[in-house]
Amino acid sequence: MFETAELGRKVSKAEFKQREAELREALLIAQGRLRKASFPVIVLFAGVDGAGKGEMVNELNGWLDPHYVLTRPLGDPSPEEQERPKYWRFWRDLPPKGQIGLFLSAWYHAPLLDHVFKRTKRGRFDQDLDEVMAFEQTLADDGALILKFWMHLGKKAQKKRLSKLEKDPLERFRVSKDDWKHWRMYDDFVGVAEHIIMRTSTGQAPWHIVEGADANFRSLRVGELLLEALTDRLDEEDAARTIALETKAPEPEPEPKSAKDNMRLEVVRSGRPTVLDTVDLEAKLAKKEYQRRLREAQATLSRQHHEARKKDISMVMVFEGWDAAGKGGAIRRLVTALDARSVNTIPIAAPSDEERAQHYLWRFWRHLSRAGRVTIFDRSWYGRVLVERVENFASEKEWRRAYAEINDFESRLVEHGTVLSKFWLHISPEEQARRFAEREQTPYKRWKLTEEDWRNRSRWGEYELAVHDMVERTSTQCAPWHLIAGDDKYHARVTILETVVAQLAEAVSK
Amino acid sequence: MFETAELGRKVSKAEFKQREAELREALLIAQGRLRKASFPVIVLFAGVDGAGKGEMVNELNGWLDPHYVLTRPLGDPSPEEQERPKYWRFWRDLPPKGQIGLFLSAWYHAPLLDHVFKRTKRGRFDQDLDEVMAFEQTLADDGALILKFWMHLGKKAQKKRLSKLEKDPLERFRVSKDDWKHWRMYDDFVGVAEHIIMRTSTGQAPWHIVEGADANFRSLRVGELLLEALTDRLDEEDAARTIALETKAPEPEPEPKSAKDNMRLEVVRSGRPTVLDTVDLEAKLAKKEYQRRLREAQATLSRQHHEARKKDISMVMVFEGWDAAGKGGAIRRLVTALDARSVNTIPIAAPSDEERAQHYLWRFWRHLSRAGRVTIFDRSWYGRVLVERVENFASEKEWRRAYAEINDFESRLVEHGTVLSKFWLHISPEEQARRFAEREQTPYKRWKLTEEDWRNRSRWGEYELAVHDMVERTSTQCAPWHLIAGDDKYHARVTILETVVAQLAEAVSK
Hints:
The structure is a homodimer.
Chain A: H1 13-35, E1 41-47, H2 53-63, E2 69-72, H3 79-82, H4 88-92, E3 100-104, H5 109-116, H6 122-141, E4 145-152, H7 155-167, H8 177-184, H9 186-200, E5 207-211, H10 215-245, H11 259-263, H12 287-310, E6 315-321, H13 327-336, E7 343-347, H14 353-356, H15 362-365, E8 374-378, H16 387-390, H17 396-415, E9 419-426, H18 429-441, H19 451-458, H20 460-474, E10 481-485, H21 489-509
Parallel strand pairs in A: 1-3, 1-4, 2-3, 4-5, 6-8, 6-9, 7-8, 9-10
Helix pairs in contact in A: 1-10, 5-6, 5-9, 12-21, 13-21
């Protein structure tokens, strides 16, 4: 079954670059269509250790709009999860309609290991798989698009890969004693896997076997398969809808305003000196230096994170900043150094109705992770004193009160032992204009630019004052703000990583 | 401080009956207003063991519309909860705006016990109370109405009460070894409690000390205090709104249709024989016999539940039935025999937007409780094959598929060891008409009767067929349906209780 995934197929760097650009654009377009569709997408990765399951999840997070992607690592169940029927945690973590959920092993984890280690006999094993299929069927019947990728490596290739990973300080955390144990049992694993794939590859939830030896090949393969399945389904749905509407013509999309039209929205500065003036926007890093320090910081962070995980130290990171200040890029550089299984990125947009019916801090409390995990907030509770203040979504009384509420919330985190990092990414209005223009011209970045971004720009001065007040009132000893000079992305990324490293070093050494 | 709560105040049965009826009506009216208001109500009960905290929660659940009341027992934290900052679980369990949350001890639990048992010194204790106050302040600032009741008993009265409870097989589970241990430390407890009440009784979250010796007195006292606070706040909000609207006149409420107008909606029977024809609606129980058997079943159930709790056996009960078939009354008789701390009643109404974005079973999975708890669904996943089928909310394909999905879901529960009970409460259309008329005439029952109830009546025959199919397809060996003759409420309640007792006896004896 796996012969075709041991052919040693490769994609050259140059080819990869070109195909990746096309793929990203197409994926983003499909994802945009998905948001208006009535089904969720469930993508599951399983396979041989070292064949790139975790990396693939990171890659997709980078390609897609992360606001509508949920990563569900799902390792061993927690005690609370064990107290409930087995599938409770999988149900709990399903993506809503219009979104994509990325799952690692998930409901295949226990059946596979239990059978390889002979904890289940053949009868029970088949029953486990029946349950898996019933679950997938239920979801598919409701419209879910399900794709399952088996990431494969030959036995020799796996050995080579594990050895290579172990030698790389940045990747070392990916290799555990278990991995080697599993490698010695390679044939058992592959035998059981074969049975799983044969039994559970259904029309509604097919398995795709992907050769994992070459990162470029495997990334494109997964991405292209996802794109194809997604586009097919979207076309189907559109066709069905067209038939349903019969002759009713679709409304024409409004013409997007061009950057030039919008440029009339001039930036109005506050004119008052603010704490942002202290940020040296001239700070720069040469590419070579960037690459060296980035790699070094990532290597250290990956070691530290491993340590923190063992010591049950949680991390919470808050990213705020101007539109296009580079939050996404900085977050990606961080996530790469962390174990995807224990990181959760929470993009904060408009609240759901359940959230709206609660205190505004409720939706942040609910996302706090279990011990040893990392939670990254892309925008955060500071929205209350930034956008909600500037746009008058919150009353003056409300946002003024929020400073104390936020300080109290953050001290709860820090008292609990959580490492809290807060970053404001600062750029000049001129740099922002350059980036907006660039986004408009790069197809796969275009989705990032909205009318709102232009409107926010016209309120630059008000935001300056809001940021100033925010830093003044919420940069506390236990939870200081880090103002990051962002005109140079290299400088910003490295500074953020090195800040996290320094903070974590202190926490881990305690 | 507690002298005024040891006066031995009593309310006679006759007086109680009369004042209770008035109170219930007024509470329901206030609750109706609350639903349109923009704040949540948080009611917290703490106090001396045996002073009636749990009973008070049950009483309020009986008086109010349980659809908008959340009971939050909150004992010791689970491992998942311990992995997060202390207040995470309290945040998680807050009621949304327009609803009432009933909390037992909650955030006062640990500070009180820790200090009584000398695990915290004075400084840490005060810090704990500061955190409590900051939390309450945060909620109050956002508009939450907070009431805290300290249920008090004198030392002698507590001894008498605990002894009496112990002698009663139905109430025995309420008394633990800890209770007696605490009684011997009575003076320590009262000393610490006094300090807590003094420090944390703020204008926004005041404590009310309630004499707990006489159940009638204490119920009315709590109910009347709640009513007063709620009405005052609602009046305030209305006044503020009136000022805001200035001269704009309120829309007149539509005239409620009288029962007679609606009676024209004739019941149309299906004409086909259904499984419901097998239910003997003549079944009756005399009052004496009812009281004896009810009491006996409740006593057994309370013992069994205690046992089940120790053995980590969970229970899930499903109540379906015609409108006014007596689901609420039956559920109350069940809940009374159970430890309020481990029971969760989930009224199923329209889904939230987070729920709507998922598979229809998702919202039931999310409510499954931890081990040893009881979850009661007042209406359930069967809505899919009942109301959603009859009203065409689900397509034929969807509701037909649902039978298998439901069977699969329920086998997951049963496999996990959960005791699952499913009841269809059956009444004749004539009995329903009688009850509707009665509801219209009893002020505190009027809220139960809606236009929808009348509309459903006109579709009696369609529902008959839907129920028939439901029973045929989902009454499985592992999860059988119990069709309960409900024209006589006594008969229905006793039958339900005895059925649960029989099921649980089997599970506990395993």
